[in-house]
């Protein structure tokens, strides 16, 4: 029999000397106990999340919070501060939950059985838990189950309380209890179980109730507390609902916590949060709350990163900041310089620079970057170079952003010797993020038709940076221009075979032009067919030349009607992604479905995978999602067009919008399926162990997967956490699993995902051994 954990033990008056074997799903006919007493008002103190003791537990806890995971290189504001203090979860009290005392419940046998349930239930996992409750279905009532749920909350076993409540809502006698639902939701949120908390929140809304202020508050803070801001969008959604649906006035601390999260990322990413940040500021002002100095600074900072500068708004914020009695710090002045430099306003930029000089503070490198930018806007590139030299003369070490900016400026000015000298300095500094500078250098060589330099720079870049589609496309175009079609064909083939690079409309058009210029019309036609299948736009002049060339061979090229059909690789990719948690939804009840691809913005591995999947499913994307020439602008969330070919996968992997495992899933676990499952929902830990996250399904379905892998001599262990199962391969089993999937894993992908596994260990692990 499973033993009860210390935290799951009931109050002393509920202790029972009788131990039952697990095979009994109900208590004995007669069980005499003195009725325990529970206070009329339930008092649940705030639970604390226990310290994570292993890398695997850290990974699982991280995921449970998720399920139940620019041009200038610089940190966002408040980067060193926590997004939301843990104590913030207790800032608002939950409504009181009135629960009758056990002795007030009728009949001694009923009281005895309830006492038995309170003792036994918290010790068991989900399946046994439900089986025990089902066996008591004939006599349990709403009041009985409410008492059991309240007891689980009182002993801080919130997962058990959630299971009891979930079982209760499925019974025919269930009557919605707002106070109980609120208390369960709040306790789950305080413990960081955001998925379960969100589920309870939605259940309250579906019952026609507006959740309590405490529920909104706690859920927002729980989302903000998810590591690396992965649930910031969800936190903003609940915040907006709190004000618009609940008509509540959030506390000042909650406004500040959310605003801090909005400006905690780098400028290139955070600039999209401007509208939400302005909404938070509006609520602070309209509710007469104190506006912190950092809120003004953060808003100006966000405005300075916008593509179109709202000059009037920045001026208004500066006036409001001074009216509030705050002095403009260096951060604000640098933000103002950044905004003015984008407009090419030399006078205002230099005036702000003078204010920084007069402040007597250390001169920030970013201010020099802004000055370089504004003079480049006016065509004074050598003045920008003088500013860069001045920065070094004043012993201010150039950072990555300053090197990027000055190399970009000098490359556009076509100052070849200066650019090459700066590039050598940048390389010798051993700083990271060399790729943007290499690209600026190659674009300059391309404009000047210096093709030998392009090849040399390409080789240097490949030796120091990860493969990049833009880099390969520039080199491919150079080879085609000089007529080296054989080498171009080799490079194009490498782009197609390497999932980390891939091809796009531009690279295919370049190769098509190359074959046409070499009068190799058969290969040109093959490229054209591939472009038609991927729905790439073919340049008009290339199409006319191809038709003319084929006419010479008495062959006419006709527009081909391409039937939409998933190829074998795309089907296997989809299965791997669905196992990892990708969502499919029905479109307008028309028998067609849409696949939603979503990747983690804070993951380098997912960033690489995002570009690869966008290229691999290009023909299945709507036109708005196919218009990105720069791979860095591809969003981290995109969806396919609605199509009936996705319906099969929806029927197999979802039932009533809930994820399930197909009955034949064990037959679909090809090496490519396993590889994409690993890349999307897995992790390789520094110890060499591999962990896969499995979405949906039950123990029986998971066991079929485990047995299928066991037939390949790969033994694994399984752990369930929330709605996900975690399958772990350790030691030699991890090596065997890696041998199977390695041919299909993207090049250099393993390094990225292993580094992120190391971060997981350093963030939450006290030892590197993970326990199942």
UniProtKB/TrEMBL annotation:
GO terms for biological process: Group II intron splicing; mRNA cis splicing, via spliceosome; photosystem I assembly. It is found in: Plastid, Chloroplast. Keywords: Chloroplast, mRNA processing, mRNA splicing, Plastid, Repeat, Transit peptide. PPR repeats lie at residues 364-398, 468-502, 504-538. Residues 571-737 form the Homing endonuclease LAGLIDADG domain. It holds the Pfam family PPR_3. One of its GO terms (cellular component) is chloroplast. GO terms for molecular function: endonuclease activity. It comes from the Eukaryota. Belongs to the PPR family. P subfamily. PANTHER family: PENTATRICOPEPTIDE REPEAT-CONTAINING PROTEIN OTP51, CHLOROPLASTIC. This is Protein ORGANELLE TRANSCRIPT PROCESSING 51. It comes from Zizania palustris. The lineage of its organism: Eukaryota, Viridiplantae, Streptophyta, Embryophyta, Tracheophyta.
């Amino acid at each position: 029999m499973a033993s009860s954990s210390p935290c799951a033990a009931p109050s002393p008056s509920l202790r029972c000397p009788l131990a039952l074997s697990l095979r009994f799903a109900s208590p004995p006919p007669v069980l005499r106990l003195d009725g325990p007493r529970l206070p009329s008002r339930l008092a649940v103190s705030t639970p604390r999340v226990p310290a994570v003791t292993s890398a695997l537990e850290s990974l699982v806890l991280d995921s449970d919070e998720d399920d139940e995971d620019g041009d200038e290189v610089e940190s966002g504001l408040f980067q060193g501060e926590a997004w939301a203090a843990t104590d913030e979860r207790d800032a608002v009290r939950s409504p009181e939950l009135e629960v009758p005392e056990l002795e007030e419940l009728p009949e001694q046998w009923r009281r005895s059985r309830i006492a038995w349930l309170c003792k036994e239930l918290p010790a068991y996992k989900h399946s046994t838990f439900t089986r025990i409750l089902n066996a008591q279905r004939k006599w349990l009532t709403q009041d009985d189950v409410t008492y059991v749920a309240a007891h689980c909350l009182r002993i801080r076993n919130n997962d058990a309380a959630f299971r009891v409540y979930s079982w209760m809502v499925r019974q025919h006698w269930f009557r919605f209890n707002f106070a109980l639902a609120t208390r369960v939701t709040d306790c789950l949120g305080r413990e960081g179980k955001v998925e379960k908390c969100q589920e309870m929140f939605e259940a309250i809304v579906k019952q026609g109730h507006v959740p309590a202020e405490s529920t909104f508050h706690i859920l927002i803070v729980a989302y903000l507390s998810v590591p690396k801001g992965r649930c910031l969008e969800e936190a903003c959604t609940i915040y907006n609902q709190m004000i618009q649906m609940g008509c509540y006035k959030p506390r000042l601390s909650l406004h500040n916590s959310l605003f801090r999260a909005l400006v905690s990322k780098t400028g290139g990413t955070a600039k999209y949060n401007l509208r939400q940040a302005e909404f938070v500021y509006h609520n602070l002002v309209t509710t007469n709350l104190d506006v912190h100095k950092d809120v003004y600074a953060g808003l100006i900072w966000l405005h300075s990163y916008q593509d179109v500068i709202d000059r009037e708004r920045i001026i208004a914020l500066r006036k409001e900041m001074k009216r509030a009695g705050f002095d403009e710090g260096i951060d604000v002045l640098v933000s103002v310089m950044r905004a003015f430099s984008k407009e090419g306003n030399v006078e205002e930029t230099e005036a702000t620079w003078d204010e920084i000089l007069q402040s007597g503070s250390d001169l920030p490198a970013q201010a020099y970057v802004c000055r370089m930018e504004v003079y480049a806007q006016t065509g004074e590139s050598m003045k920008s170079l003088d500013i860069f030299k001045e920065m070094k003369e004043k012993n201010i070490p150039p950072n990555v952003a300053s090197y990027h900016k000055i190399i970009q400026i000098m490359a556009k000015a076509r100052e070849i010797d200066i650019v090459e000298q700066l590039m050598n300095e940048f390389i010798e500094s051993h700083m990271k993020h060399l790729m943007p500078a290499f690209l600026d250098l190659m674009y300059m060589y391309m404009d000047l038709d210096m093709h030998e330099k392009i090849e040399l720079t390409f080789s240097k870049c490949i030796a120091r940076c990860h493969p990049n589609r833009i880099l390969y496309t520039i080199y491919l175009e150079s080879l085609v221009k000089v007529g080296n079609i054989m080498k171009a064909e080799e490079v194009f083939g490498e782009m197609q075979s390497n999932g980390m690079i891939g091809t796009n409309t531009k690279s295919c058009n370049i190769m098509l032009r190359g074959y046409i210029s070499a009068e190799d019309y058969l290969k040109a036609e093959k490229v054209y067919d591939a472009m038609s299948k991927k729905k790439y736009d073919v340049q008009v002049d290339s199409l006319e030349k191809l038709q003319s060339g084929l006419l010479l061979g008495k062959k006419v090229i006709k527009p081909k009607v391409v039937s939409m059909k998933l190829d074998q690789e795309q089907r296997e990719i989809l299965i791997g992604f669905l196992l990892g948690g990708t969502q499919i939804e029905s479109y307008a009840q028309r028998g067609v479905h849409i696949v939603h691809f979503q990747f983690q913005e804070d993951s380098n591995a997912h960033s690489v995978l995002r570009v690869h999947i966008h290229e691999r499913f290009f023909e299945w994307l709507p036109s708005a999602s196919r218009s990105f020439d720069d791979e860095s602008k591809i969003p981290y969330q995109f969806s396919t067009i609605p199509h009936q070919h996705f319906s099969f996968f929806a029927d197999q992997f979802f039932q009533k919008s809930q994820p399930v495992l197909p009955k034949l899933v064990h037959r679909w676990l090809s090496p490519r399926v396993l590889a994409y499952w690993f890349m999307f929902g897995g992790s390789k830990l520094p110890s060499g162990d591999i962990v896969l996250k499995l979405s949906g399904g039950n123990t029986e379905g998971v066991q079929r997967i485990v047995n299928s892998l066991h037939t390949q001599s790969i033994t694994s262990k399984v752990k369930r956490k929330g709605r996900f199962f975690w399958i772990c391969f350790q030691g030699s089993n991890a090596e065997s699993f890696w041998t199977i999937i390695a041919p299909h894993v993207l090049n250099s992908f393993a390094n990225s995902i292993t580094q992120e596994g190391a971060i997981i260990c350093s963030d939450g692990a006290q030892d590197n051994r993970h326990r199942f």
